[in-house]
Amino acid sequence: MTDEAPRKPMQQAVALAYDTGKPAPKVVAKGRGLVADQIIHVAKEAGVAIHESKELVSLLMEVDLDQQIPPILYRTIAELLAWLYHIEAAQKSGSPLPPAPDTSIPLTEI
Known about the structure:
It holds the Pfam family Bac_export_2. It comes from Duganella sacchari. By secondary structure, the chain is α+β, with helices and mostly antiparallel strands. 35% of the residues lie in helices and 12% in strands. The longest helix is centred in the C-terminal third of the chain and has 20 residues, at 74-93.
């Protein structure tokens, strides 16, 4: 028997980018462990808002790099993008930051 502490699940991270005029955001970075840590670090340094959702990240990890998100995630990602715009507006005006949206995805949609 060993006295090792139980291992924490490896952190995952996904970065999305949306170009105006394109049909949907695309996955521009994704990874686990140290790569995930680096994605989060770069986002924080750039002042990018970070939203944590293990369920959503798990689904986005299945999308290939440089590919658009699947239509099933359009609504959830649109809500996240709207949240980000509200955060930017609140920061500029000094208003309180809006609460993060619920990114749980009903099993009936998957």
